[in-house]
Design brief:
single chain; mainly alpha; Endonuclease Iii, domain 2; Endonuclease III, domain 1; 12 helices; 0% strand; elongated; binds iron/sulfur cluster
Length: 224
């Protein structure tokens, strides 16, 4: 992790600056899962996106939602039919079972509404903190750091914690107080886009990066 000097902005200030620069770069960054604003559909898509690309999830879900448009239809569908439809997303048995069960739980325990609390979301089958934060931020506007692979990698490179850190819960804990709550959802969507375009896993394009002036990784490279 970078050492703090009198010239180095404090982490919160640097996080704000990173958020500003990312917003300039991607003013309209949105979730790449195309759910049409339906909370249950976003939940289903987020569950399917584990170890699968968002592009593939979007394609698979066109047919999935045409056949099973809501929680009631999913809860009533034969498991084998759901499995067949979500198979291209990988891990299809587990995912299909989770989709059926979480849909039933939403109908049974939440009157058909996707929960709006971390505890309620985590109680749903197959829903972890990453998905829960996505729902809280995107659907309910409550904020939430979605600590996916891009967020973990880029925030580490920026110097908010050691680059070797790969624990999503610690990333979430460190970044949550640094990014204003109302900006957290967009900040994370922008990190995804930025991680695909500029700060890629294999070859970050530091020379052309608008965040290089506030980035510990770029600073360390300059000193080599
Ligand atoms: S300067 Fe390099 S490591 Fe830092 S955010 Fe930009 S691309 Fe990533």
């Amino acid at each position: 992790m970078e050492r703090q000097t009198s010239d180095t902005p404090a982490p919160a200030q640097r996080a704000r600056e990173a958020a500003v620069r990312l917003k300039r770069l991607y003013p309209d960054a949105q979730c790449s899962l195309v759910s049409g604003g339906d909370p249950w559909r976003l939940l289903v898509m987020a569950r399917l996106s584990a170890q699968c690309t968002d592009e593939r999830v979007n394609i698979v879900c066109r047919d999935l939602f045409a056949a099973l448009p809501d929680a009631a239809a999913m809860a009533d569908a034969p498991l084998s039919a759901i499995e067949a439809m979500v198979r291209p997303c990988g891990l299809y048995r587990r995912k299909a079972s989770d989709l059926k069960e979480l849909s039933a739980a939403i109908l049974r325990d939440w009157d058909g509404r996707v929960p709006d609390t971390m505890e309620g979301l985590l109680a749903l089958p197959g829903v972890g903190r990453k998905i829960a934060n996505l729902i809280l931020g995107d659907v309910y506007g409550l904020g939430g750091i979605v600590a996916d692979t891009h967020c973990i990698r880029i925030c580490g490179r920026l110097g908010f914690y050691p680059e070797s850190l790969s624990d999503p819960v610690r990333t979430e804990r460190i970044m949550t107080p640094l990014v204003p709550r109302e900006e957290q959802a967009a900040f994370c969507h922008r990190l995804v886009q930025f991680g695909r375009d500029v700060c890629t896993a294999r070859a970050p394009r530091c020379a052309a990066c608008p965040l290089s002036g506030i980035c510990a990784h770029a600073g360390a490279a300059d000193k080599k």
